[in-house]
Amino acid sequence: MKYNVCPLFRAPLLRGLAATACCPLLLSMMLVVMFTLLLAPCASRPALAALARKADVSTADAFNPKPSDTDVILPMPCGLSMVFKLVAVPAKGLLWDMPMRPGVDDSAHQERAYYDRRFNTALSGSFTLEDLPAAWRKLAPQGQNFFYLVAKYEVSNLQWRAIMDNACPDTAQPGAEAARPVTDISWYDAVDFTRRYTTWLLQNAPDSLPRFAGDQRNVGFVRLPTEVEWEYAARGGQTAGSQLLLQENFFAMQPEESKADYAVFRPEQGARAEGMANIGTRKPNPLGIYDTAGNAAEMVLDTFRFSMAGRQHGSAGGFVRKGGSFLSGDAEILPGRREETPFFMVDGPAHARDLGFRPVISGINTPGGARPQELTAEWNKAGEKPAPLADGQTARNPLDELDRLLAAAPDDTSRKNLQELRNTIKENNIMLERQKQMEAQSLLRTGVYMIETIRNYASRRNTLKTQIEIMERDKAAAKGAELEKLKKILDTAQRGMVMLNTSLEKSLTFYRSKVEESALLAPEVLAAANESLTKDFSGADPFNENMHKNLELYRLHVDAMRKNKLLSRESMQKDILERRFQ
């Protein structure tokens, strides 16, 4: 048999045979290698060169491998960049915020309940729309929001070296590690990176950071995210809406997708873990940021406290680690998972080979310019008026009477006591105002979901009715055992029909009661709750589109009830079903 030796291998093989001719053992080994190469296909020189470069990455791979029109790009030393995404947090004003319940609902891991149980907190952003550069404002969603920015990717090794080293890294041939997340660094190192990067931006590109209107001293800065900032962004931020933030332990995915499409992790217990991947190798979450699940776990600014009974308990411990890593299992990469990491171990500051970070851009809450006057005006307005009544009238305001008593106070002691009483009543008014707003949102959300429940019962009833009609026809021709079997099935089906009819009637009654309760809300409270839910259901997916239509129908029923129009259960049912099945 004749073999053609690939020209690329011919000369090295001949030299090898000549060098081993004096040694039988080496000669035998060389013949085995030669036979293997004879059977291998001949690769071209370009192909071999490509294999040699397979581990190389481009500079862009290390800071923005997946460019997007919604990127906010800030410069870095050495000609590099860091990419951020704008995060919008709905809020009525500077003293308001968005309620949040971070954590997970996970009955399968009860031993971690005091770590991960959802707890009540709130979130807002430092920047108003006016504080953002003009180019960024075009990326902001409609409505009243406050903003911060979150890094699109985990900080890469190349970005780390550009900030932390005194000399620029090789950007022409950055090397295989350049595009992987920087890890094996301490929390203090990550904080130092944000300090150095902000300093560099202020010295070299000051206009790239947000500025507060009318304030010449304060400016936006780079820092580690808080746990709530990180989790809100990881769950999809403003794209998710409050309902999905509560419902989903991950974020909404398409039916054909799995977590493996978004995360580098160990998919099964005991399975071999993937290695650390380059930034941006999986799909982005709905906000457009990458690798919040798996790859490198991420540090946040907050210290760890236990989560029990809807709030955080205990002492401030180590820092919180979020998102899981390439070494984590399926349950460990959920955005709500919380792990405590010590700031120090016995050998110094703690670090891990699978722990990195991504920064945010934020600012202070009390800058100069017009902000102090705006804050004072909001505070003076908050809680000064009792909650409006449903008929548009206002209850008597005790603060007015206290103001008269304060003006006539005979001495400083009386004035101080009256002022403390006034402050207590004001705080209570603020609490009641926000509680009413939350109750109104909950009321409207219940009505929206009841519409879907009614349609579901009606659809099931129609399906069962058709099946009963078919079985009734079959019954006429059936005999013997087949007839007896069919009678039993029919009996079960007819009892099921009775249950569905009862459920539909009770659901309609309950729905009507929610409409009546909503009609009693003060107009401004109802309008604010409607605006909030409209934002929640603003997504373009089928679920949000359907919920948005349900909200519109619910508001029509509420408005009709407020105008004392005749609104029977039958007419409500007709509206609900015809709009769904037209």
Q: Number of domains in the coordinates?
A: 4
SS content category: alpha+beta
Main sheet: strands, sense, barrel: 5 strands, antiparallel
Number of helices: 16
What oligomeric arrangement do these chains adopt?
A: single chain
CATH architecture of the largest domain: Alpha-Beta Complex
CATH topology of the largest domain: paralog of FGE (formylglycine-generating enzyme)
Average predicted confidence as pLDDT: 85
End-to-end distance, in Å?
Answer: 77 Å
Give your account of this protein's structure.
With 582 residues, the protein is an alpha+beta fold. The protein contains 16 helices and 15 strands. A five-stranded antiparallel sheet has the order 1-2-5-15-6. The protein has a four-stranded mixed sheet with strand order 11-10-7-14. The protein has a two-stranded antiparallel sheet with strand order 3-4. The termini are far apart.
